[in-house]
Amino acid sequence: MIVAQEVLSLYGVEDKESFIEEMQSRIKNSIIGVLGIEYVELTPDRVVMTMPVGPKTWQPLGILHGGASVVLAETAASMATAINIDPQKFYPVGMEINANHIRSKSNGVVTATAVPLHKGRSTMVWDIKITDEDGKLICVSRCTMAVIAKR
Q1: How many independent structural domains does the chain possess?
Q2: Across the 151 residues of the chain, what is the mean pLDDT of every consecutive 10-residue run?
Q3: Catalytic-labelled residue, pool 14, 21, 38, 74
């Protein structure tokens, strides 16, 4: 996994392995862990995550459920926002997400790549493209995240 040094500094860890262990422990019993979503790249201007396509992510016809794609997209946007804010003072919360499902997929792996459209103090907007192993577009999404002050 690629983790930018500024991300490690933001979270107060010196080595990538400690950061990865912490992130994996946070998602273990969440929908992220259940769906098998994994981190691939975490940099302030690009987050890449993967998700296997199979029975856990299928709709009844045996193809990737649109909701699973939306979970992957919002997870990428949430993580992208999280690594751009001070985690001691703020946390990211999804405000709005939309998705256009372009192509079906019944097995393999999909990859979400989130890049910023807007990085403000109180909101961030991310463009997320989900592709298959051949780079074919499966889903395109836009997610608006709120940056909420911790109390």
Answers
A1: 1
A2: 74 76 81 93 94 97 98 97 91 97 98 98 98 98 97 89
A3: 74
